[in-house]
Amino acid sequence: MKKITQLFGFALLLTATLVVLSILGLILFDIVLKGAPVFNWKFLTHFPQKGMTEGGIFPAIFGTTLVTLISTVFAMPLGIGCAVYLNEYAPDNKFTRLIRASVRNLAGVPSIVYGLFGLSIFIQGMGIPPSLLTAGCTLGLLTLPFIIATTEEALRNVPRLTREGALALGATRWECVYSVVLPSAVPGILTGLILALSRAAGETAPILFTGVALYTRYLPASPLDEFMALPYHLYILSTQHHAIEQVRPLAYATAMTLLLVVFLLNFTAFRIRATYKR
Amino acid sequence: MNRRFFWDRFFEKALYGAAWVSVMTLAGIFLLLLYNGAQTFISIAPGDFFSFSRWNPAAYDQPTFGIGAMLVSTLLVTAGAMCITIPLGIGTAAFLSEMASPRLRNVLKPAVEMLAAVPSVVIGFLGIVLVAPALAAAFDLPNGLNALNGAILLGIMALPTMVSVTEDAIHAVPGHYKEASYALGANRWETLVHVTLPACKSGILAATMLALGRALGETMTVLMATGNATSLPHGIFDPVRTITATVAIEMGEVPFDTPHFFSLFACALVLFLITLAVNILAERMAARFRKKGQ
Fold it and tell me: Which phi and psi angles does B11 have, rounded to 5°?
């Protein structure tokens, strides 16, 4: 009897796992199956044509690349700086606990709220026009808690003896951090940054009111120009377009491109982590 | 020598400054939502805002701002999502930590992480092209864009959080709990159900809270898949419009500094406070299970 219950229970757990896996499988299968026929070199390198019913998604790929790069340039020094402070300098006091609590709670703030914050700070407050810059900074704030968490983990894995060795040789605290601790934490930090890039590339809600455009005739020429983005393009093609059924294949191919970008970034991060774990 | 100590001091201060950016961002988000949101109540009575009157802020003669229906919609979709995420998440986490061989785990864990990496618009898109037709056919509906569709999608999106935090909680259960259980003659299943899972109750609760926070704040998925009707839903098959979707749809079109503009910030403030409360609760629970693990 006990054995039968156990068998039944384990079968239940196995089912749950299989359901989760088949969801992932279904997502990948459906999108690749229906996206692949349209997904080709021309699709990736051309502008949308005839009211987005034909042509490609090049400006969206270009815009997403730029906006995620801007977000990382903005968030990287702040995030790494914060993590280094928390792990290497911070005394255990009220302020440190406040900083840690803020980081944790920032990670739980809904992405649309970041969008509103970016709108009122960068656009309303500082008077910057909705553009790559404002959207990039908004996305940067969103990925900040993420970069802090992964960098801190990387720093924690650096053995204490390494630090003590440097300090014993007469290095100042900063010299120890800069020339000993940070170099050995680079793979971990890099993994976190790439994952943050992938997160920023897929987000739509924060850029809705901070600079993304339905369609631009030219590529953005400066950080103060509006831009097209892959996730927003997918949203437009699947809900806002005047001929939704007609553009469905294009929507599938856009979804496939977005998934490809995100998975490639994740895979790179995964490889870096796997290589340096040994 | 002096220069070295100058740079040492300089970077200590600079890093300290970087650390405060997160505090300032969180405080800035709260204060801006409060500042803009509070101005709603210059022209709209709080009793009218927190009511079930129709959400019709763009009406020409008599705009009405009732957040009630949106709040109910948000809770309905999220509750539905939790019904899917909790059992599937606990089941998968238990499988990963108690049954799977290390080699299998090394394959399955990245798969779960891969699910977490799928962008929310892609999930929303699949809600339109896959889930909606399936629901329409199964329940004989005109279209499948409704609360149930949103619940299914959010349930999927919250799964990775649920699985990984629950798994961490299971790992934090001290090994001698299990050994004692085996010594008393319990088999693996009995140990899991009567010893391991009860021992990490607070961890599972923390996972649930974090997953809940994730689902509450999700925007694009619900915007695309729930049908966006502003009326009060009467069931899981009604189209709904959540708080996040409302802000996303309307903020792009309102002129700055109008009652409508401010009311959207008030909506976002309500959402922010709910998710903040949920996250703080999750943090409390997580702190408890981490302490137990040591």
Answer: -70, -30
A164 is written with which tokens? 């003590």
**A203 in B contact zone (CB under 8 Å):** yes
Cβ-based burial of A267 (10 A; exposed 0-12, middle 13-18, buried ≥19): middle
Which of A9, A78, A175 is nearest residue B189 as measured by Cβ atoms? A9
Token reading at A274: 């796997």
Whether residues B9 and B77 share a domain: the answer is no
3-state secondary structure of B240: strand
Q: Tell whether the model's pLDDT for residue A165 goes beyond 70.
A: yes
Tell me the shortest Cα–Cα distance from A50 to chain B, in angstroms.
23
Report yes or no: A2 at the B interface, CB cutoff 8 Å. yes
**Predicted local confidence at residue B57, as pLDDT:** 84
Which residues of chain B are within 8 Å of residue A88 when distances are taken between CB atoms? Answer: 15
Q: What is the pTM of this model?
A: 0.92
Give the gap in angstroms from C-alpha A13 to the nearest C-alpha of chain B. 5
> Which among A54-63, B263-272, B278-287 has the top mean pLDDT?
B263-272
Question: In the predicted model, what is the mean pLDDT of residues A198-225?
Answer: 90
Q: Does A113 touch chain B (CB under 8 A)?
A: yes
Q: Which of B118, B165, B242 to mutate to test the interface with A (most CBs of A within 10 A)?
A: B118
A-contacting residues of B 22-51, CB under 8 Å?
A: 22-23, 25-29, 32-33, 36
Query: What digits encode the pLDDT tens for the residues B108-160?
Result: 998 998 999 999 999 999 999 999 999 999 998 888 899 999 999 999 999 99
> Which architecture, in CATH terms, is A57-238+266-277?
Orthogonal Bundle (1.10)
Confidence of residue A278 (pLDDT cuts 50, 70, 90): low
Tell whether ipTM is more than 0.90: yes
Do B13 and B123 belong together in one domain?
no
B192 lies in the same domain as B60:
yes
- Exposure pattern of B154-189 as b/e (b: 16+ CB <10 Å)? bbbbbbbbbbbbbbbbbebbeeeebeebeeeebebb
Domain ranges, residue B226: 48-293
In this structure, are B30 and B69 located in the same domain?
A: no
> With bands split at pLDDT 50, 70 and 90, how would you rate the model's confidence at B58?
confident
